């Protein structure tokens, strides 16, 4: 199965040379060539590009990302086997990560999703490797989650979820302290760097703008009664004619662009944040309803043009692929100039047939349907609900895996809006959670004698007269 998944990825490497692009790609690239704490998103992925820059090859970048995508599946498989899951079921749980066409396509893009996924999955696997995480595991997990948070901001709530799970395990003060230190020190250092450059504390300066875009889907200024300085941000359209949230950030005919200054300037960020918080507090039920609506898009058809066709097309293998735009995303160099500086070449696409067209068809035919994603999540939740009766020892790992997947799916609709690519980092967690859930449910049907995972620690003797018992035998 791993070999077949590797062959599909090799087809991408051969068919689409050197890589695929999205607008964000050139922002990551510009920051890699001119290091800075970027105001829109953290710079972790740019550090990754910086590390590979001496090789001057975007093809190498995507090859490494494809290998990381395979590594995610291997980590999930090994973890599930450690929890006494049959090999066939553990392998089946990795199918969404290994073969989903959208997952393979995003690995072939100069984008942060793959790096973020491997850091998040590695952190969860590290915490779950032992029945009660030791200090070294907590130390490593905190550092991995710090890296994830500096790659995509959704890593911050994921770190909070993992930290709360760790506290619930009561591992002692040393693992908790180790986790906090390796999580907070990198974030703190980056925050200081960000403050020295932008004059404000944080790792990004765009939270208020993105939350404002979220509220444009439901806000009714006749009900929120914003003061004059905030009223300029009221959407002009009627509620049933509102644009997708992202349009209110990036389109120039929207209220945010009617205010002088850069979109993510501190003044606009503050104004947008105040407007958004007022809308959420004044219309909490409307906010909840719009979040649930967008969250439900996760489990609908995946081939929809939402938020619009222009945003979806770059995340599809297509012939011909999108060229490098002649634009400047990060001051100091245009996109073509940055591509030439990094690649030591033009970065022009070179397609090799029939591989390119085959991948275009593959992605449309081989992708986990949205309703199946819902079933995977339902299977994990049902497993948690029944674990106490049949396999109580599996509830702990299943709870963290499911919470991680839910966090990755829920935070974007809560803070910005739905986008199909935001689903991809959750695929590995959904597959693993469903696998564990199915294992629990199957136990409920057959009701065999419970078998605990084979950890290295020995159980203490039940009484002074008993010998120490090795749970692995």
UniProtKB/TrEMBL annotation:
<feature type="transmembrane region" description="Helical">
    <location>
        <begin position="175"/>
        <end position="194"/>
    </location>
</feature>
<feature type="transmembrane region" description="Helical">
    <location>
        <begin position="58"/>
        <end position="80"/>
    </location>
</feature>
<feature type="transmembrane region" description="Helical">
    <location>
        <begin position="366"/>
        <end position="386"/>
    </location>
</feature>
<feature type="transmembrane region" description="Helical">
    <location>
        <begin position="136"/>
        <end position="168"/>
    </location>
</feature>
<keyword id="KW-1133">Transmembrane helix</keyword>
<keyword id="KW-0472">Membrane</keyword>
<feature type="transmembrane region" description="Helical">
    <location>
        <begin position="110"/>
        <end position="130"/>
    </location>
</feature>
<feature type="transmembrane region" description="Helical">
    <location>
        <begin position="422"/>
        <end position="442"/>
    </location>
</feature>
<keyword id="KW-0812">Transmembrane</keyword>
<protein>
    <recommendedName>
        <fullName>Glycosyltransferase RgtA/B/C/D-like domain-containing protein</fullName>
    </recommendedName>
</protein>
<feature type="transmembrane region" description="Helical">
    <location>
        <begin position="398"/>
        <end position="416"/>
    </location>
</feature>
């Amino acid at each position: 199965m791993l070999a077949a998944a590797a062959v599909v990825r090799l087809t991408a490497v051969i068919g689409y040379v050197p890589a695929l692009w999205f607008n964000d790609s050139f922002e990551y690239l510009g920051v890699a060539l001119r290091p800075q704490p970027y105001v829109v998103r953290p710079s972790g992925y740019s550090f990754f590009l910086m590390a590979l820059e001496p090789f001057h090859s975007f093809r190498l970048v995507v090859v490494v990302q494809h290998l990381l995508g395979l590594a995610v599946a291997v980590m999930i498989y090994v973890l599930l086997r450690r929890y006494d899951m049959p090999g066939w079921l553990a392998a089946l749980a990795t199918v969404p990560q290994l073969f989903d066409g959208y997952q393979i396509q995003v690995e072939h893009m100069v984008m942060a999703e793959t790096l973020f996924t491997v850091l998040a999955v590695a952190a969860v696997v590290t915490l779950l490797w032992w029945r009660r995480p030791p200090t070294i595991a907590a130390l490593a997990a905190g550092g991995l989650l710090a890296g994830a948070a500096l790659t995509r901001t959704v890593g911050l709530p994921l770190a909070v979820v993992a930290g709360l799970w760790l506290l619930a395990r009561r591992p002692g003060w040393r693992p908790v302290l180790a986790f906090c230190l390796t999580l907070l020190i990198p974030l703190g250092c980056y925050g200081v760097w960000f403050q020295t450059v932008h004059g404000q504390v944080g790792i990004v300066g765009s939270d208020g703008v993105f939350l404002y875009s979220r509220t444009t889907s439901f806000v009714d200024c006749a009900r929120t009664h914003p003061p004059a300085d905030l009223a300029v941000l009221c959407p002009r359209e009627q509620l049933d004619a509102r644009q997708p949230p992202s349009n209110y950030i990036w389109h120039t005919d929207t209220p945010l662009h009617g205010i002088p200054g850069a979109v993510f300037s501190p003044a606009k960020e503050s104004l947008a944040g105040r407007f958004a918080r007022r809308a959420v507090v004044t219309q909490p039920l409307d906010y909840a309803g719009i979040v649930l609506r967008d969250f439900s898009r996760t489990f609908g058809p995946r081939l929809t043009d939402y938020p619009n066709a222009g945003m979806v097309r770059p995340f599809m293998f297509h012939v011909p692929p999108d060229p490098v735009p002649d634009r400047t995303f990060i001051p100091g160099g245009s996109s073509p100039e940055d591509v030439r500086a990094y690649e030591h070449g033009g970065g022009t696409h070179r397609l090799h047939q029939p591989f390119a067209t085959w991948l275009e068809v593959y992605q449309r035919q081989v992708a986990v349907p949205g309703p199946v994603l819902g079933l995977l999540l339902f299977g994990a939740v049902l497993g948690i609900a029944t674990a106490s009766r049949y396999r109580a020892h599996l509830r702990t790992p299943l709870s963290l895996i499911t919470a991680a997947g839910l966090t990755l799916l829920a935070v974007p609709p809560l803070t910005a809006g739905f986008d199909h690519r935001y689903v991809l980092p959750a695929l590995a967690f959904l597959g693993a959670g469903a696998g564990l859930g199915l294992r629990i449910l199957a136990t409920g049907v057959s009701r065999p004698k419970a078998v605990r995972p084979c950890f290295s620690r020995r159980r203490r003797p039940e009484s002074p007269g008993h010998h120490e018992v090795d749970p692995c035998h």
